From TrEMBL:
This is T9SS C-terminal target domain-containing protein. It comes from the Bacteria.
Length: 436
């Protein structure tokens, strides 16, 4: 490992002055969460629905703010149609029919809210709970790393045969456009599947690079908040709040960028079982389904804040309620930069199939990071000896900082339920290369 350290010094020391003083975690001169997010959505009352959305939407359709819509059963946007949603529109997912909205391949959604008038997808129950309804699925024609050019999602229970053509995804167009999601909230999604597992708050399957994905909040999802399969996805200002599953899950050869985004977990809400983390990066579920001549999963993540909001971190770790924040599987790559990981056990885990050598470490990058109050930093799965990894990522050329600050000292304002501010208190950082 000493040779690795020497090499990384040669390549990175020249850019030290550029990165060392940059802000870490979510950034902005103002608190960009204010106005469009809601961290206590169960108290919101949107009234009774005035319109019903059911079956297939096969022609261009516009939803207006003056109506409240009830999403009934599995709703598909098909036939290359575009579903346009005005700012401030509310769509209620029906609990009894476990509603979901799918944008079929070739169709599009234009859901462009504003900072003061976001679009809201939520449960129709008076007392809302995670998993009340399905969620949103956008199916595009960008590539995956699977064999062939297309696949079929299998989330639906009792789907009629007429709907089979609408659940395909995948193709050869990495720059395709499935529309816009901007200033959108998705609440209480992730219904349970009869086959096991859950829907996700937002599934992006082979979504192309021209799709706009900005300022999206997924809260209280019983499944994963954001799941990305294949495609070329650019996401900015994403918020995942108290997911039961993972916050951001990348798979099947996706080429994704995730910028200036937040994941907040709670040890008594977010499941620590079944491999749920803030970020999971993998290239496949089963190795035999993947064509290794294609590009594998690569994620570029910059200015993220990954926070486990625990009042008793040591006690919660002893109870088994807190696990790692980031998981990297074999044959997947991540370049994580200027981000904060606070309050996990440990911060990062590599799948045990990953061999610790120069080639693998060069495609799993953590630079200019702020590791705070974690029970260990970077480990290989099922291996408590992380000396090689600590020597590598702890080298001063990576500009990683290690600290043991309390959340109240580390972030600007976590207790304000109306207007929380998860930006880092810059003046509290003392640059250090000391690590556990």
């Amino acid at each position: 490992m000493k040779s690795f350290t020497h090499i990384v010094c040669v390549f990175l020391i020249t850019v030290g002055s550029v990165y060392a003083q940059q802000e870490k975690g979510i950034i902005g001169s103002d608190n960009w969460l204010y106005g469009w997010t809601d961290f206590k959505p169960n108290g919101s009352d949107y009234g009774e629905p005035t319109q019903i959305l059911a079956g297939n939407i096969s022609e261009n359709t516009r939803l207006t703010k003056r109506d409240v819509y009830l999403l009934l059963g599995n709703v598909f946007v098909t036939n290359n149609a575009t579903l346009t949603i005005e700012p401030g529109t509310v769509i209620l997912g029906d609990y009894d029919s476990k509603a979901s909205l799918t944008i079929a391949k070739g169709s599009a959604i234009i859901a462009e809210g504003t900072e003061t008038d976001p679009i809201v997808f939520t449960s129709n129950r008076s007392l809302k709970r995670a998993g009340d309804w399905g969620g949103i699925m956008i199916l595009g024609d960008a590539p995956t790393n699977k064999f062939g050019n297309g696949s079929v999602i299998s989330f639906y229970n009792n789907l009629n045969t007429a709907s089979y053509p609408y659940i395909n995804y995948g193709g050869e167009n990495p720059s395709s456009n499935s529309g816009v999601l901007k200033y959108v909230r998705i609440e209480y999604a992730g219904k349970r599947l009869k086959s096991g597992g859950n829907f996700n708050g937002l599934l992006l399957a082979c979504v192309g690079g021209k799709t706009v994905l900005d300022n999206i909040m997924v809260s209280h999802s019983a499944g994963n908040s954001f799941e990305i399969w294949g495609g070329k996805v650019h996401m900015n200002k994403m918020v995942s709040y108290r997911a039961n599953g993972s916050d951001f899950k990348f798979n099947f050869g996706t080429q994704s960028e995730l910028n200036n985004s937040l994941a907040v977990r709670s040890p008594y809400v977010s499941s620590s079982t079944d491999g749920n983390r803030c970020i999971s990066v993998a290239s496949y579920e089963k190795r035999e389904e993947v064509d290794f001549s294609k590009v594998q999963t690569n994620v570029i993540a910059k200015n993220l804040t990954l926070l486990n909001n625990s009042d008793d971190l040591k006690g919660d770790i002893e109870k088994g309620l807190v696990k790692e924040a980031v998981y990297v599987a074999q044959n997947a790559s991540i370049d994580m930069n200027k981000s904060v990981i606070s309050g996990f056990n440990p911060a990062v885990i590599f799948e045990d199939k990953i061999i610790i050598n120069q080639a693998n470490l060069e495609r799993i990058k953590f630079t200019d990071m702020y590791f705070n109050n974690c029970n260990g930093n970077i480990f290989v799965e099922n291996n408590s000896n992380n000396e090689d990894l600590e020597n590598w990522y702890g080298n001063s050329a990576f500009f990683n900082v290690y600290a043991k600050g309390q959340n109240s000292e580390t972030f600007i304002d976590l207790k304000n339920e109306r207007r929380p501010d998860f930006r880092l208190r810059i003046n509290k950082i003392i640059a250090s290369n000391e690590h556990d």
